[in-house]
Design goal:
By secondary structure, the protein is α+β, with helices and mostly antiparallel strands. It is built from eight helices and ten strands. Keywords: DNA damage, DNA repair, DNA-binding, Glycosidase, Hydrolase, Lyase, Metal-binding, Multifunctional enzyme, Zinc, Zinc-finger. Belongs to the FPG family. GO terms for molecular function: 8-oxo-7,8-dihydroguanine DNA N-glycosylase activity; class I DNA-(apurinic or apyrimidinic site) endonuclease activity; damaged DNA binding; zinc ion binding.
C-alpha cells in the first residue's frame, strides 16, 4: 500500500509534469471507484490542473476553471492502486467494466500526455472523489494530524490519550495520518519497540526516540524516492525496508530471524532481539506475548 512517502513522491512527480496543463478528457473504466456524483467527472474537462499535493495517504489534484472555485480530484490508492504517468496514452478510452487494471484515465496537456489510475488484484478498494472542498470527503475530514506536522509535545499527547498498542496508534489514520503497515514496522524496529507496547505506558525517553524515529524513517524514505519515476517507486520502497516483508530473513541490525504475526488480511514483521527482549509474539489472530 502506498504510504506517506510514496504518495508524496507521486504527488511531486505528477505536479512537476501536470501543473499548468489543461485537462482534455477523463475516461472512467470503473464507475465503482467514483464515490461522488456532483460535480460529475465530465466537469473536469476543460479545467486547468493547478497543483498536485497530498493529505495523509490521499492524493489531491486541484483544478481551476474560469468562473468558479476549485474542483479537487482526490484519490486513495488503497492496497493495490497506483498512478502511472505516460507521454503516450492511447486515445481510445479503456473499456468500461473491463478486466484490465485501469480504473481512471486523465488526458491532459498535449495528445498522449496524462496518467492512468490503476488497481491490481481482485479486492477493489481504490476510491476516487470529485469535490469542491476536500472536507466533503468524510475520510479526509476525519484524518488526524499529518505524521510529519506533529510537534514532540503533540505527539506525546496523542499517545497519552489512548491505551492502544503502539502499532495500532501509528496506523490509525484518525489519530496520525500517513503511516501504514510497512513504515510502522520500520519505525518500531528502528526505535526498538514492541508492536504490542501500550502507547500510554511509554517513558519520556521512549517517546523522544519514537518521535525522532518517525521523522527519520519517513523523511529518509522521501529522500530516497525524490526524483524517481513513478514506475520505480515500489522497488525503491522495498529496497529500503529492514524488517517489513522480510519474514525469515536475518535482521540487518542483530542477525536474528525476522518474525511475523499474521491476521486475517494482513501481517506485520518484527525482530525479537531488537524489539521484544527475545520473546516471540504468538502468530495467531488474538496474538499476545508467549509466556
Amino acid at each position: 500500500m502506498p504510504e506517506l512517502p510514496e504518495v508524496q513522491a507521486i504527488a511531486d512527480y505528477v505536479d512537476g509534469r501536470a501543473a499548468g496543463l489543461p485537462i482534455r478528457r477523463v475516461d472512467v473504466a470503473s464507475l465503482a471507484v467514483l464515490k461522488t456524483a456532483d460535480p460529475p467527472y465530465t466537469a473536469l474537462a476543460g479545467r486547468m490542473i493547478d497543483r498536485v499535493g497530498r493529505v495523509g495517504k490521499y492524493l489531491v489534484i486541484t483544478t481551476t476553471g474560469t468562473d468558479d472555485g476549485p474542483i479537487h480530484l482526490i484519490i486513495h490508492l488503497s492496497r493495490a492502486g497506483w498512478l502511472r504517468w505516460s507521454d503516450n496514452l492511447s486515445p481510445t478510452p479503456p473499456r468500461p467494466g473491463g478486466k484490465g487494471p485501469i480504473a481512471l484515465r486523465v488526458h491532459c496537456g498535449l495528445p498522449g500526455e496524462g496518467f492512468d489510475v490503476t488497481e491490481a488484484g481482485t479486492q477493489k478498494r481504490l476510491a476516487v472523489w470529485i469535490v469542491r472542498d476536500p472536507a466533503e470527503v468524510e475520510r479526509v475530514a476525519t484524518l488526524g494530524p499529518d505524521a510529519l506536522a506533529l510537534t514532540r509535545d503533540e505527539f506525546a499527547a496523542l499517545l497519552a490519550t489512548t491505551g492502544a498498542r503502539i502499532k495500532t496508534v501509528l496506523t490509525d489514520q484518525r489519530t496520525i495520518a500517513g503511516i501504514g503497515n510497512a513504515y510502522s514496522d520500520e519505525i518500531l524496529h528502528t526505535a526498538k519497540l514492541s508492536p504490542f507496547a501500550t502507547s500510554k505506558n511509554l517513558s519520556d525517553e521512549q517517546i523522544d526516540v519514537l518521535y525522532a524515529t518517525v521523522h527519520a524513517v519517513l523523511t529518509g524514505a522521501i529522500g530516497r524516492l525524490e526524483g524517481q519515476e513513478v514506475a520505480r517507486l515500489k522497488g525503491e520502497k522495498r529496497s529500503g525496508l529492514r524488517v517489513h516483508a522480510r519474514t525469515g530473513m536475518p535482521c540487518p541490525v542483530c542477525g536474528d530471524t525476522v518474525r511475523e504475526v499474521s491476521f486475517t488480511d494482513r501481517s506485520f514483521q518484527y525482530c525479537p532481539t531488537c524489539q521484544t527482549g527475545g520473546k516471540v509474539l504468538a502468530d495467531r489472530r488474538m496474538s499476545r506475548l508467549l509466556k
